[in-house]
Amino acid sequence: MNPSITKDDRVKVLGSATYDDIDAEHVRVLGSLTVKGDTHAERAKVAGAATIRGNLDVDSITVSGSTKVAEDVTADSVSVSGSLSVRGTTQADTLDCSGSVKLETVTADQFETSGMAKVATLDAESVRVHGAIQAGHVEADDVRFNLVGESVVSSLVGDSIVVGRRRPDGFLRAKSIEGSDITLDYVDVERVVGDHVKLGANARVGVVEAEELDMADGAVVDSAE
Predict the structure, then answer these.
(1) Core-most of 17, 83, 102, 151, by most CB within 10 Å?
(2) Does the predicted model carry a pTM greater than 0.90?
(3) Are 112 and 131 in contact (CB under 8 A)?
(4) Can you give the C-alpha Rg of the chain in angstroms?
């Protein structure tokens, strides 16, 4: 019989453990944990491996090992230096990744990654990418990409968007970028729409629609409207 952990208990996994559900104050995983249902905790730390087949609801979670969640994640704070995979919706005040994340729908106040992020849909107030990102749709008030390696985004929407690189291999490929103030370098974009658009010397754009367009020597635009 698989036990369920009740509220106010502390769960510490050193070896291998399987639970039906967890409702605890603090969960710490140094070994291997499997939860067949939901996990509720104030704090969770995963240095080993955790598989949660239901929902994860925490105040804060720190992942330096590996965590897989089959359904939704709700948290105030998510910090990942290892790997996190979520099949459902991830909702957090802050999400900080220096490792790797593979997420579907993300809603956050602040999203920051210096590692590798794969996200289907990201909606945030602030997005900071200091590593690499692969995404379908990214929308935020304030977007700053300082890239390492090649990133791919289908559509990027924001009030203020700045894309550049942190290392020589940093580069962004995108189908569309739309915003008010847009500054782009080290990009290859099919379509850019904005009020004020500034292109660096290493920017290539298919079509630009802008009220004001500032192009550095070397920037390539196939069509400007």
Answers:
(1) 151
(2) yes
(3) no
(4) 20
Joined tokens for residue 70 = 């089959």
- What Å distances lie between residue 177 and 35, 75, 112, 198, 209, CA to CA? 41, 29, 19, 12, 11
Nearest partner of 163 among 135, 195, 127, judged by Cα: 127
* pLDDT tens digit sequence for 127-139: 999 999 999 999 9
Closest CA to 174 of 139, 145, 205: 205
Angle at 184 between CA 180 and CA 185, to 5 degrees: 175
Helices and strands of the chain, counted as H and E runs? 0, 18
**Partner residues linked to 123 by β-bridges:** 107, 139
Task: Give CA–CA dist 77/214, Å, rounded.
Answer: 39
| CA–CA distance, 164 with 171 (Å, rounded to integer) | 8
Tell me the sheet residues that pair with 98: none
pLDDT tens-digit map of 146-163: 999 999 999 999 999 999
| DSSP state letters, 2-43 | ---BPTT-EEEESSEEEES-EEEEEEEESSEEEESS-EEEEE
Q: CA separation (Å) from 124 to 68, 109, 111, 143, 179?
A: 22, 5, 7, 9, 15
- 3-state SS class at 7: coil
